[in-house]
Backbone:
């Protein structure tokens, strides 16, 4: 801290009373004080300029930081807006998919209800068919019982007829009858002659005969015209007899 020079008070009457009045101006002290003042002013100016420069740099740095932060915030804001747009689009898509799914579920529910109604109707119909089938089965068992009774009664008569006629009829498959003849060939009474008659269609057929019978097509045409199987069997026996006689 600079030393302050204190100037004594001027006693003007004492000075004027002197023979050669002189006033000591103390210029050296004034100059020293002036230099000290100028140095203080210079120091103050330098400190002020340094402070201003420091504050200016700090302001510029802060301004730059704020500008960068502003740019970063604007970038983040733009990204947020883009994400918001994408989220809105995704939400709209999900809403559309939800509506579509709800419509599909509603359609499936309607179909399910229709199927349930059909199932209920079919169950009722199935139950009715079961009742009808059960009645038919009972009727069939009753008829089979009756037929079995008749067959047991007719079996001796059938055996007697087959023995007398030397002819046997036997079912060998669906709608097929095996007809066997014996005592056809006088030379070999035990020799068996047979044919298979197929009655599954409107037009009767004979898939096979043993032995081969040349007149079979003619006899089969007569059968399909007359529909008389008994006459056909009798004529087949006669044809086998003629074939056996001619063969000798």
Residues:
């Amino acid at each position: 801290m600079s030393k302050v020079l204190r100037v004594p008070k001027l006693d003007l009457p004492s000075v004027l009373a002197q023979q050669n009045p002189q006033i000591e101006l103390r210029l050296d002290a004034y100059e020293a004080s002036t230099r000290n003042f100028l140095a203080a002013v210079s120091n103050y100016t330098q400190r002020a300029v340094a402070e201003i420069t420091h504050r200016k740099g700090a302001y510029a740095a802060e301004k730059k930081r704020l500008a960068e932060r502003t740019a970063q915030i604007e970038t983040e804001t733009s990204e947020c807006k883009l994400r918001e747009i994408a989220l809105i689009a995704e939400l709209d898509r999900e809403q559309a998919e939800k509506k579509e799914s709800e419509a599909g579920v509603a359609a499936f529910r309607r179909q399910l209800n229709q199927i349930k109604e059909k199932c209920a109707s079919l169950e009722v119909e199935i139950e009715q068919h079961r009742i009808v089938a059960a009645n038919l089965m009972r009727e069939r068992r009753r008829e089979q019982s009756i037929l079995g009774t008749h067959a047991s009664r007719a079996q001796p008569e059938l055996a007697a007829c087959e023995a007398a006629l030397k002819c046997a009829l036997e079912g060998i498959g669906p709608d097929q009858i095996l007809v066997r003849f014996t005592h056809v060939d006088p030379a070999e009474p035990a020799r068996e002659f047979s044919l298979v008659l197929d009655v599954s269609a409107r037009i009767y057929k004979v898939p096979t005969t043993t032995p081969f019978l040349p007149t079979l097509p003619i006899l089969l045409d007569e059968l399909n015209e007359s529909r008389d199987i008994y006459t056909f069997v009798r004529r087949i026996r006669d044809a086998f007899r003629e074939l056996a006689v001619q063969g000798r």
Summary: The longest helix spans residues 27-165. The chain has four helices and four strands. The longest strand covers residues 167-173. Strands lie at 167-173, 176-181, 193-198, 205-210.
